[in-house]
Amino acid sequence: MDAHTMTKPAVLILLGPPGAGKGTQARMLEEKFGLVQLSTGDLLRAAVAAGTEAGQAAKAVMEAGELVSDEIVINILRDRMAQPDCAKGVILDGFPRTTVQAEALDALLAENGQSINAAISLQVDDAAMVTRISGRFTCGACGEGYHDTFKPTKVAGICDKCGGTDMKRRPDDTAETVASRLVAYHEQTAPLIAYYKARGVLNSIDAMGDIDAIAADLGALVKQATA
Ligand code: ADP
Ligand code: ADP
Ligand code: ZN
User: Fold this and answer.
1) Which of 31, 19, 40 is nearest to 92 (CA)?
2) pTM to 2 decimals?
3) Residues 28-56: pLDDT tens digits?
4) Ligand located closest to 216 CA
5) Hey, which residues does 92 pair with through a beta bridge?
6) CA-CA distance, 114 to 88, in Å (whole number)?
7) 97 catalytic, yes or no?
């Protein structure tokens, strides 16, 4: 290898319906591999909280369980990818969600001389997603994700990671909104599985098991894809 060639930062994509466990697994991969988790859902919620123009436009759309416009999401993603910590490599969690976004990502990576190491599809059935989403809560201080049944805090009301007590539930994690989000997933996002398959970067894993078993499978896959 040329002495001036720099190792390219890894680019991993987690594909999967709402509640599949993308955020949970992305945070575990972040710790294990020193990568940066990039969640467009988190970035959009931050924009809504900050009341930026993009956030104001996104708020009602997110509450209805529909997809925010490609233009807004692509701009937010591009700005975030330009930040220096992303040079460690990124795990895209919840992006891309449409073919337009996937094409924009390909163009952005090409500009930077980067490419996708793997797009990993987390496979769960629709019933599991509803159960997962309806019990989801998050630590408001550090962002650690929990579940009433499947991943409770060790001490009720107190974050295992940071000791925070400000637990949050998302306004869109309701039974009605979940139905719209599933429709959006099947119509607009699921076609990306074929998109990445055609590019030879698709991997699928069974995401119906418990969190640690999935993390082990995913870890092995990521190790291989970033070697
Ligand atoms: P996504 O980012 O794909 O929407 P999350 O990672 O937020 O999904 O997970 C949704 C909810 O399900 C959270 O409450 C999380 O604690 C829980 N969860 C994640 N993975 C599993 C799993 N394998 N089994 C059971 N519950 C899970
Ligand atoms: P989940 O994984 O549970 O669906 P996210 O936190 O990824 O939740 O996304 C929450 C909401 O934010 C989505 O329902 C959608 O309105 C918006 N959103 C997040 N990422 C995107 C994206 N890439 N394109 C369009 N909308 C997005
Ligand atoms: Zn915390």
Assistant:
1) 40
2) 0.95
3) 999 999 999 999 999 999 999 999 999 99
4) 1
5) 13, 38
6) 13
7) yes
Q: Which two tokens stand for residue 191?
A: 């076609």
d(CA 226, CA 38): 17
- Ligand 1 centroid from CA 19, angstroms: 5
Q: b/e map of 194-206 (b: 16 or more CB within 10 Å)?
A: ebbeeeebbbebe
Q: Whose CA is nearest to atom 12 of ligand 2?
A: 41
Find the 34 Cα to ligand 2 centroid distance in Å: 24
* 199 tagged catalytic: no
**Among residues 27, 132, 151, 181, which one is catalytic?**
181
In whole angstroms, how far apart are CA 221 and each of 4, 196, 201?
A: 28, 16, 12
CA distances from 215 to 92, 99, 112, 150, 154 (A): 16, 27, 29, 15, 20
17 ligand 1 Cβ < 6 A: no
What spacing in Å lies between the alpha carbon of 159 and ligand 2's midpoint?
A: 24
Alpha-carbon distance 91 to 39, whole Å?
A: 8
Q: Which atom of ligand 1 is nearest to the CA of 16?
A: 3
**134-190 pLDDT tens trace:** 999 999 999 999 999 999 999 999 999 999 999 999 999 998 899 999 999 999 999
How many CA atoms are closer than 13 Å to the CA of 85, on its beta-carbon side? 9
Q: In whole angstroms, what is the distance from residue 161 CA to residue 153 CA?
A: 9
Annotated catalytic residue 22: yes
28 within ligand 2 shell (Cβ under 6 A): no
Annotation marks residue 132 as catalytic: no
Could you tell me the two tokens for 214?
Answer: 């999935």
Q: Which contiguous run of DSSP H or E holds residue 203?
A: strand 202-206
